[in-house]
């Protein structure tokens, strides 16, 4: 019986690690798709244009980018969120993983429903409206997720993931407010969007690499605190 339980535990651990690795693969897939599609899109500017414009109606490689870039990276991000959830030691970790799942699913949906040509915001079609909402959810959820995790780590100031989560989450949230607050006319919109994506996926990769150790550390600290509590 004990051997079966150990085997099951090892299997669960291996499964969650595989899911966490999806979070490391997601930015690789998305970055490669952006670089390659941008290279073959005539006149495309990574500085001023949204990522979504590479998968917009009429783009040179619309479906390849939408499915191979946005949809696939979104799926990988959602799988990572599941792995994060399985490792989550506290409620704030669970909330953070759910926000990561929203970020992944938002990107996935944005890959299914393309924006109109040029990703214009006037007289948007239904698919473009869905795309815009999904993109908003993806970027906003990805910005808030690190901050929610930081709340759960506030009692563990020695954990390096705490300041990183605060810094990347705060910077991302400010950039999201600038990007969506100013609309499509914001200068360097492409740069701002890419900085948001970079911040999110840097955080995802660090969490993927550190969360198992973090779970064990917090679990040990919580057990130690419980033992030190005076009995009444």
Question: Can you give a write-up of this model?
Answer:
The protein has helices spanning 2-40, 62-87, 91-112, 126-152, 161-182, 189-228. It starts with a helix and ends with a helix. The protein has one domain (18-213). Mean pLDDT is 86; it is low at 1-11 and 222-229. Helix content is 76%, strand content 0%. Helix 1 runs antiparallel to helix 2, helix 2 packs antiparallel against helix 3 and helix 4 (126-152) packs parallel to helix 6 (189-228).
Poorly predicted sequence stretches spanning 5 or more consecutive residues: 1-11, 222-229
Write down the overall mean pLDDT.
86
**Inertia-based shape:** globular
Q: How many beta-strand runs? A: 0
Structural class of the secondary elements? mainly alpha
Give the SSE order as H and E letters.
HHHHHH
Radius of gyration: 20 Å
Task: Classify the beta-strand content into a percent band.
Answer: under 5%
Main beta sheet strand tally, sense and closure: none
User: How many helices does DSSP assign?
Assistant: 6
The N- and C-terminal alpha carbons lie at a distance of 37 Å
* Count of the separate structural domains: 1
> What is the helical fraction, as a range of percent?
over 70%
Q: What's the structural blueprint in terms of helices and strands?
A:
Elements (H helix, E strand, L loop, with lengths): L1 H39 L21 H26 L3 H22 L13 H27 L8 H22 L6 H40 L4
What are the defining features of this structure?
232 residues, mainly alpha, disordered N terminus
What's this entry about, in short?
The chain is mostly helical and 232 residues long.
